[in-house]
Design brief:
Blueprint (H helix, E strand, L loop, with lengths): L2 H6 L1 H12 L11 E5 L2 E4 L4 E4 L2 H4 L8 H11 L14 H12 L3 E5 L2 H18 L9 E5 L8 H4 L5 H4 L9 E4 L4 H7 L4 E6 L15 H11 L3 E5 L23 E4 L11 E5 L1 H4 L15 H16 L2 H22 L4 E6 L4 E5 L6 H11 L1 E2 L1 E3 L3 E4 L7 H21 L2 H5 L6
Parallel strand pairs: 3-13, 5-6, 5-7, 7-8, 8-9
Antiparallel strand pairs: 1-2, 2-3, 4-10, 9-10, 11-12, 12-15, 14-15
Helix pairs in contact: 4-12, 5-12, 13-15, 14-15
This protein binds pyridoxal-5'-phosphate (PLP).
The site of pyridoxal-5'-phosphate (PLP) has 15 residues, from α6.
């Protein structure tokens, strides 16, 4: 393409405009999305992509699911935002439904995941003081190393990731770290002032790390014995992503509180929630906590329809089967291109492909995948995350995996990896 036509190229314009006027807190993959439908996305030049990322699980229902769009449109003819100063016709049905699917007595709606995590932190601290009897201001919450719970200043204050926290202090403390999956480390970090353990059932941003078998059962028992709340952050793992409604169900435990977000907004809106039984939730009384937009009529209508779609379209059962198939295919590729891929891990339709750092970066392969028509996203230097909408078909899984295979084989040839292991790539 010559210089004069590149001036008019809308891809270049959109990228340049964001880069010129937007804050530089993201480094997007260079794809300018124009529109999307279910698992497919088109850029401004009409190129088609398979969405194997689904906005970090926020688009588990697929893009613009017709039932969810219809629910939003119907509500938009009535009322969208009134604040919680009044009752609405949609919040009641939504909180009842969410209470039924989670098994928790009460639901506190917020907007973003980070806000629901903040809600959990406030709840745990007040519970620690009022119910457990810890002096106010001395409550401690245990968090795992490698955690990701959002980006507010309180939350990044207990991140172990330097990039997320450096220069953003001072941090107000009140958190202690343990090693994810290590019960001895939990016990060593705890004190009499520990009011809660806040934990992800699978560490997503850390690289889709699945805990060792039995860890959550031990943690559950320890929390019960020590009168410590077990707070499960399923903002990314929840609502079917792992092949069950909630990831804690794989562990055979029930937490004391559950945090949801991302897919709760059914791919349309930010909707999050903090769920707990009355004995925990009771610490919130009128005026003690809230959000202007939290639980607004439009959000509640959309989220309710999203829950019904998951259930009625059997997306969660299908996720378990499709996830097994995706894993099987990725493991085949892993053995074909050894040692390029160090590991394939995860649960359901949530996979981290761990790239051998001496071969290349995850970002390199993510950009090649985008050129090939597959959207994914790296996390840290070495992990490529695949988390397609739960509505994905086997046909699209195959297509995406074949493109990934092509990208891996290309890298394999470039690095001449076959020479080292003396293997010839299968055709
Ligand atoms: C994404 C995420 C959050 C934060 O959600 P936002 O909507 O980005 O604020 C919190 N916890 C986990 C586990 C997440 O994956």
């Amino acid at each position: 393409m010559d210089a004069s036509s590149s001036n008019k190229n809308p891809v270049i314009d959109h990228v340049a405009q964001e880069a010129r006027f937007g804050a530089r807190n993201y480094a997007p993959v260079p794809v300018v999305v124009d529109h999307a439908k279910d698992c497919l996305v088109w850029d401004v030049d009409g190129r088609e992509y398979i969405d194997m990322m689904s906005a970090y699980s926020a688009v588990s229902h697929g893009h613009l699911h017709p039932r969810i769009v219809a629910a939003a449109e119907a509500q938009l003819k009535k009322v969208a935002v009134m604040s919680r100063a009044y009752y609405s016709t949609t919040l009641g049905p939504f909180v009842q439904k969410l209470s039924e699917v989670t098994g928790f007595e009460r639901v506190l709606p917020m907007n973003t995941g980070a806000e629901a995590v903040e809600t959990a932190i406030k709840c745990a601290r007040r519970w620690g003081h009022r119910i457990k009897g810890i002096p106010d201001g001395q409550q401690k919450i245990l968090v795992a190393r490698g955690n990701f719970h959002g980006r507010t200043s309180t939350i990044i204050g207990f991140s172990s990731e330097q990039e997320y926290r450096t220069g953003f202090g001072p941090f107000d403390g009140g958190f202690q770290h343990f090693d994810y999956g290590d019960m001895a480390s939990v016990k060593a970090a705890a004190t009499a002032n520990t009011c809660a353990v806040l934990i992800e059932p699978i560490q997503g941003e850390a690289g889709v790390l699945v805990p060792p078998p039995g860890f959550f059962q031990e943690l559950r028992a320890w929390c019960t014995e020590n009168n410590v709340l077990l707070i499960d952050d399923e903002v990314q793992a929840g609502l079917g992503r792992t092949g069950k409604w909630f990831a804690f169900q794989h562990e055979g435990i029930r937490p004391d509180a559950l945090i949801l977000g991302k897919a709760l907004g059914a791919g349309l809106l930010p909707v999050s929630a903090f769920c707990a039984d009355d004995k925990v939730m009771q610490v919130f009384t009128p005026n003690s906590h809230g959000s202007t937009f939290g639980g607004n009529a439009l959000a509640a209508a959309v989220a309710l329809e999203g829950l019904k779609v998951l259930e009625e379209e059997k997306l969660i059962e299908q996720c378990a089967e499709k996830g097994e198939y995706l894993f099987k295919r990725l493991r085949e590729i892993q053995s074909e291109v050894a040692p390029l891929i160090r590991g394939v891990r995860g649960r359901g339709l949530w996979v981290g492909v761990d790239i051998e750092p001496s071969c290349t970066t995850a970002r390199d392969l993510v950009e090649r995948l985008a050129k090939g028509g597959v959207l994914s996203k790296e996390t840290h230097e070495t992990v490529i995350r695949f988390a397609p909408p739960l509505t994905i078909t086997y046909e699209l899984i195959d297509k995406a995996v074949d493109i990934f295979r092509g990208v891996c084989q290309q890298k394999y040839r470039e690095l001449d990896l076959g020479r080292k292991t003396n293997t010839v790539l299968p055709a």
